[in-house]
Structures are given as C-alpha cells and as structure tokens.
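Progress narrative, work stream C.
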Amino acid sequence: ARRRRKTTRADQEKRLASVERALSSSVRASVPYFHRRALANLYQVRSLDALRTYERAHDMHASAKRSFAALERRMRAHSPGGGGADAGTSPSASPGTFDTELMIASSDAISKVVEMETMKKRAERAHARNTKLATEAVDEARRLQRQHGKSVEKARPYFTAKAQAEAACESAEAAVKDAA
C-alpha cells in the first residue's frame, strides 16, 4: 500500500507538471480565481454547518424550556400556598416546604435554557459571518473571471487534473492507513 501510494503520488506529480508546463502562464493568472472559488465553497460548507448547529440548538432550547416549565409547575404546586398537591414530590418534601431536589433540577434546567440560547446566538452569528464571506468570495471570483476569462478557461484542465491527483493521493493515503 505504501509503495502504491508513493508511485501514485509520483505519477500524479509528473502528470500535473506536464499539464502545467503547457499552460504555465494561464495557470499563474487564474490561480486567484480558483482560490476564491475554493474559499467560497469552504465558507458555504461552514455556513451550512452553522445553520445545522442552530437548528439543533433551537430544538434543544425548546426542549429545555419545556422541561423547565414542567419543573416550575411542579414547584408551584408544592410551594406554600401553591396548591400543595403531592404529585411528583420527593418523599422527603412535606407540604408547605420547598423540595430541594426539585429546585436543583429547576436550576439545572434554566441553566440549560440559557446555554442553548447562547449556542443559538453563536451559531446564528457564525452562519451570518460565513454567508457574508462566501458572498464576498463569489463576487471576487466573478470579478477575477471577467478579468482573466481566457486564462481561466485555458487553465481549467490543469485544476481538474490537480483535483483528480489530490483525490488519488488521498485514496492512496487512506489505503495506507487502512493497511496499518
């Protein structure tokens, strides 16, 4: 597997070098364009990850609020003058006294609500920041494509070959890791 990885890497480097020699000036002129496109893709992926995190945090926040509301109702039912029903209290709590276990659970639940709110806000900010960066990168890539249109089209085979070479090297690397 290691020998195949080494030969794959060498073959891919030779292939890229030959394509680059044929298109060297076009490749140099179009590197910023392809770099911006790659950055835009990266920011889009990060933005989607932040959006998924926001969705998870939103669901967890709603669940934490529901559990806190249930605990709060139970606490009200067992507080002095709050109904005093005996449903769900711990055996140590007598009517007219506060159930410490219930209060601790309620405190933990409200902490979870606040934590999930913070996570939602952080994910929302990350989504907005990455969306803005992705939009800027796409705009910059468009500007560079207009500026270097012919070079970008001539260099596209190089970058396609480079992507294929990187994929081949990654699969060879994975084969080495699997064999080890």
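Work stream C, second folded protein:
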Amino acid sequence: PAALVGSVGFSVYFVTAVQGNQLTLGFRASGASTSDAIAVETATSAEMTLVIRDATGNVSRITTTAANMAAGTWYGVVARWDIANDKRAIEIYDAAGALIDSNEDLATDLSTYVPDSNVATVSLAYKAASNANDVYFDTFVISDTYDEVTAAMLDYTSYTQFTSIAWQQFYRRPNTLLRM
C-alpha cells in the first residue's frame, strides 16, 4: 500500500490490559484485499509487531522482544519499512522518549511480501474489533522515508517544531486523545 518505503510513529496508552495475539493496533495501510497490508499489531507477551503482507497471504513479521508493555503507561511506537532495500524495524519508547526495545532486520528478502500498490484504506488509531480493552492514541506522524520519523516527534506540541514546510502543512495538533 501507499509507499513501499515509509515510517509511522504514534503514542499509545493501554487502559486496562495489553492485548496480544496479532491484533492490528494504531496503524494499518491496506490494499483492496484485507490480507494486503502494512500494519502495526500487538504480539504475545506485551510486545509490538510490524507486519508486511501481500494479497495472497504471504506475511513477514518483525517483533520487539523485551518491551514488556503494561497497562496504565504511555508508549511511543515507531515502525519503519523499505521493501526494495530489505529493511524493516519496530521500536518502543517510554513516555520520556527513552528507547525500551527495538528490532531491526536488514537481511530478510522482502520481495515475497510486496503489498499491492493500490491503497484502499489508511487507518490511524485503528483497533481490531476483537480487542476488548480500551486504548488511547495520541500524535500520529507518517513519512514516506525510512529514517524520518523519530520518537522526539511524538512529543511535539507545535507545528513549528517540524523542520520542513511539508511537515508543518500536515501536522495535527497533539494531545487530542482518541479513545478506542
């Protein structure tokens, strides 16, 4: 979907529990098929996963392994992908912007998992219907480059903090909670 290279960052707060087991949470860009997507999902053991999946169901996941997220805490999530150059990463930050855990893969051949280039839907603050727990989201930042979104951007309080006019034009005021 959208771009075969990009990054996304957002803040998330799990109110009652961190739901596991491959439930899309926060970001999903999907093609005409529901299988065809680049998405962020929860994973078992209170971790997060970047998923790249084509329309035929070929799926590639990269998951944090030591984030150990808990309810009642804000986290920053940054996911990155560059399918043509076989790069993908997922990072989890605490509320102060300190890195808790990250996982980057520069070796997997991602050509098998190329999603359809036709985007049908881009969803922000997306929460899978099977996730019964309340979740809050704040400050979404999306880029068409691998390295542009940083954890620091999740704390911006003014569009003037973005260094380019393009970022300033697409800035959305943070601290507007979306309860899902």
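The helical segments are 165-170. No further action is required on this item.
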